[in-house]
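tool_log.txt
---
The assistant was asked to compare two proteins side by side. It first ran the structure predictor on the initial sequence, then on the second. Raw inputs and outputs are pasted verbatim so the downstream comparison step can read them without reformatting.
(1)
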Amino acid sequence: MAFEKVKRSENYSEWYNNLVKNADLAEHSAVKGCMVIKPYGYAIWEKMQQALDKMFKETGHSNAYFPLFVPKNLFEKEEKNAEGFAKECAVVTHYRLKNDPDNPGKLIVDPNSKLEEELIVRPTSEAIIWNTYKNWIQSYRDLPILLNQWANVVRWEMRTRLFLRTAEFLWQEGHTAHATKEEALAETKQMLDVYAKFAEGFMAVPVIRGVKSENERFAGADDTYCIEGMMQDGKALQMGTSHFLGQNFAKAFDVKFQDKNSKLEYVWATSWGVSTRLMGALIMVHSDDEGLVLPPALAPIHVVIVPVFRTDEELNQVTETALAIKKDLEKLGLTVKYDNRDTQKPGFKFAEWELKGVPVRIALGPRDLQNGVAEVARRDTKTKESVPLNGLAAHIHGMMETIQSALYEKALAYRTAKTWEVNTWEEFVDVIENREGFALAHWDGTGETEEKIKEMTKATIRCIPFDAKEETGACILSGKPSSKRVVFAKAY
């Protein structure tokens, strides 16, 4: 291919950036800090959207859409939420431009178009949604409200990285309203479980389910639950969050309902979301020096068929069989690309589709036709085999499940190998600085100790795992008593 490859083991960050660009997933835009998601990258995101959207609807949720702009007075109502996002907000102050009298052809802000109230470009939508819910909720009969929206948000990031952290990104955000605390908590946990099932079942990424520490909690939430994945450099990536908002937003926006006993009560709330950073996780967990490695569940193209030929006559012979194979595979629900371009040689095509992570490649030439076989190559293991044309489609269909499972098991084995229980400060620093990965360590539960550890090592508490066992221990830094281990790691 016509670009310089960077080895993952030599410069992980540069390897990632190059892969995103070379595989035609995304590129930097003319707007600083923002990205252009290219068709192939967006096709993967669409597959994610479709799968998640189906899971949301199966759990009783409906889609809606709310404005991009949030009046400043609404944004300020829930103080912790406003304070948490204040430094990342883009603000609209005027609504019109005009010609610059001193510079023909240039435009300036019309000072007479100043807005009566500034508008915040949404960094998240709790404020505008809960102001709306106030008009929708009067009685217990109006509850629950189970809504999701697919949208874009803006968080003014200073240091950006394609998919992982950009000033504008795509996401979904669920916002639900409930009559009881128990219902809201059940919803929060249910949606985290949906995210975990998606990550493991579709992305083939093993995740740890847990609750965030108070310091890492979503601004305005009583509790934040999360799923954390490990990337191939041992760093953590927060892949999804589900927030129990308590009655904080209901109180801020005065959203009350009359219960079955005619008593006025504040509504209980949740919010939950995942974003295009899942694309970053997909890339960083599975890919290699040759390019993307995509799990079949999210691959835009499952199989590519590359003809090997010298003459037009040979191409015609191969094409007839290739199109028959394509038809058989499509009947089984697979997406197939027949790459019969005559502008590139087979070797170029092999490298290109390997770079793009297509799970299975079929090479088919005149000799293969004579022998009644096709050469089938797996992207994940880079293994090849000759498979009889009779029964080829069924064989490849079965391979998809094998590949999906193998990718998950490989990622799980890596995470297991890179996770250590540590009991001393020296062991902790060794894991964070030298071994790289997750350190399961005791912590005294204070924000002060958490901040000190972060300042000294750049490691943060990723979560307190739901399945953490009760055990007597001492905090690695303060030596104070602790009853559970938490997950520390450097993170994206």
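(2)
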Amino acid sequence: MSGKQYKIGLVLSGGGARGFAHLGVIQALNDAGIYPDVISGTSAGALAGVLYADGHTPKEIHKIMNSGSRLDFLRPALPREGLLQIGGVIKILKNCLRSKTFEELKIPLYVSATDLNNGKAVYFSTGDLLDPVIASASIPVLFRPVMINNICYVDGGVLDNLPVKPIENKCKILIGSFVNPVGYVEKVSGLINIAERTFMLSMSKEIIEKAKKFDLLVAPPELRNYKILDPEKADELFSIGYKATKAKLKEIDIDKLLEK
């Protein structure tokens, strides 16, 4: 273990508006004296991760991402490549990110996106910051893909919704936050709701096999009651992530964990 590059690695899953729970998770970790040395995230996890790596606190990020109206995130688009516009997220990042490149971030960051042309997951960690983060959060069908170097990218959760791969061999301690549990839904209707539900199901399949890679994994089951396109529940989601993490930390010996 002594050859590991980082002590603590934090992996943040996708999950749309449920990503507000990531902020509660990070806040609880920080309150316990646990701070990540490297972060890997996709989709909502990439958004939370990039702002935290840029030096914003979880509560500041909560305020930043909760500052607009629901229409800022769910504004309809001409349905040629996506049903909704992602302009609200782009505006927030442009206004709030101090860093323009990965290299300028205070904490090293990996962002997962899906390369549609070659059918593979790609992990960005160098160069320009904005386009990879937006690509990582561009849920297919709902949002337009992002072109980077003539390659078409969509949400990283399509192929890797808990992107531990780029950091799993670089960290002594791995902590994960998974905010995309799925369960029974009585009614699914409407094109956007069907697309949302389909995407959520595709993202959830890998959690069982990946869970064993983590020293600490927070995955609150009650998040299944929240839609991935409902940012109006931000306060509740933050609280769920915070309380779930506090409960998990009580189950382990934090000092022993940090001694690894």
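---
observation on (2): Residues 69-85 have pLDDT under 50 and may be disordered. The longest strand covers residues 6-12.
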